[in-house]
Every structure is written in structure tokens, then in C-alpha cells.
Amino acid sequence: IEAVADNVDAQLINDSYSVGVTGGTLAMLLNDDGTRAFEATGVLNLSGGDFANAFATAVVVRENTTTTDYSADPLTIAIDGLSADLTTALNVQSVSVTNLDFEISGFVDISGDFGFRKSVDRIEAAAVNVAASMSAGNFEVGLSAGTLNLILNADGTKALSASGAFEFEGNGFLTASAASSSVEFNDTGSDVNQDITIEGVTT
Predict the structure, then answer these.
(1) Which residue from 23, 36, 165, 183 has the fewest beta carbons nearer than 10 Å?
(2) How far is CA 180 from CA 168, 177, 200, in A?
(3) Distance (Å, rounded) from C-alpha 146 to C-alpha 112?
(4) Beta partners for residue 82, in sequence order
(5) DSSP of 6-63, one letter per residue?
(6) How far apart are alpha carbons 109 and 183 in whole angstroms?
């Protein structure tokens, strides 16, 4: 069974957070053996907790449990004037967000290319090309060209760890740099030390 749709919402959701697309288009394939593949593209939805001012240039929700690699052999589904492409690789279940930018609780501004997945009752993310900055008055400190992992728990708590090249700027004339820097946030009440791998990216 093939299907195509528009005005689609497709989200990863737990009790406190959601991430995915809204107002999007969908291509979906359902096989006799119970396997399926779908791909939805649309406008970013990132909600829950204390995220603010989130936007992105591209968002794709994907799943493929079939034996066909649609990234190598794309399928265009066209029905009744609607058309969408299925380009999802094998064994994928994720939300990919390009040039995601958001703030957390007035604490830090973060941008990068993110992959999200659902793991039991929490949402996990790995990101590359990450920039993170904190500012006070005319001073800004943070990192660039970094990586990040993020855990969003169903109880509303979260843990974030980012590392990259250190950057500092102040009063429009003072700059400094160093080999590495890190930004961390954890309100879960326990230590978190976990590598996250999504679509071949490990952070």
C-alpha cells in the first residue's frame, strides 16, 4: 500500500517534549510482511520544557523497516495530484533537523545539525556543526565547530553536553580562542555519561 499526504504532523513525543514536523508532506509505503517506510518533511515543531525561539531550515521525519534502501533507490509516490519522495535509508527511525537554532531557559543559545530518536520514554539527540554561546552585556563566551548530545526525559528534565573550539568576545574588540571548550546542563538529579549514535553520528 502506498500513500501520500499533505498538512501532515509527525512527531517524536514523550510526556514533556515533542520534536518533528507540522504542516508537512508525507510519502509512506506499507508492505504485506508488516514492514514500512515513510518520510515526512515540513516546518519544525520543537516544544516542551524551556526551549525558546526554535527554528530550522529543514526537518525530516523518517522510518524504514523494509529491506529496500530508498536513499540509493528513491521512490516517488504520486496519487490524485499529490506527490512526495521516499529517500529513507535502511534501519532508520529518526528526526533530522538542519541548521536548528534554539535557546534554553535564557542560559545558552545553541545551533547545529541534529538527529533525534525515541528511546523508550525519552528523546535523545546527537548533533554536529554545533555552536553554543552565552552572553552577558557586551561579552560572549561559547564554542564552535562542536558536537553535542541531548537527553529529554518524560518528567521534563534534560541533560546536555557540547564540546568544541573555545570562543570569547568582549566589547567589540577583545577576542580569545583555545583548543577546546564545553557547555553542560543537567537538571535530571543524577550524573549522565552516555554516547548517542543517530544515523552514523556518535557524540
Answers:
(1) 23
(2) 12, 9, 23
(3) 9
(4) 79
(5) EEEEEEEE-SS-EEEEEEEEEEEEE-TTS-EEEEEEEEEEEESTTEEEEE-SEEEEEE
(6) 11
Q: What CA–CA distance (Å, rounded) separates 19 from 127?
A: 14
Exposure class string for 31-41: b at 16+ Cβ within 10 A, else e: eeeeeebbbbb
- Do 21 and 39 contact (CB within 8 A), yes or no? no
Average pLDDT on 46-70 reads: 95
Whole-number Å distance between alpha carbons of 19 and 84: 21
Cβ contacts of residue 164 below 8 Å, gap of 6+? Answer: 130, 131, 132, 143, 144, 145, 146, 147, 180, 181, 182
Judged on CB neighbours under 10 Å (0-12, 13-18, 19+), 49 is middle
User: How far is C-alpha 50 from the geometric centre of its chain's CA atoms?
Assistant: 16
H helix or E strand, kind and range, residue 114: strand 108-119
Distance from chain centroid for Cα 123: 10
- Of the candidates 142, 145, 106, 103, the one whose C-alpha atom is nearest the C-alpha of residue 127 is 145
pLDDT in tens, 116-132: 999 989 999 999 999 99
Fill in the amino acid letter for 100.
L
> d(Cα 24, Cα 80) in Å, to the nearest integer?
17
Phi-psi region of 33 (alpha: psi -120 to 50; beta: other; left: phi over 0): alpha
- Per the model's pLDDT, the better-predicted residue between 43 and 134 turns out to be 43
Could you give the CA distance from residue 21 to residue 70 in angstroms, rounded to a whole number?
20
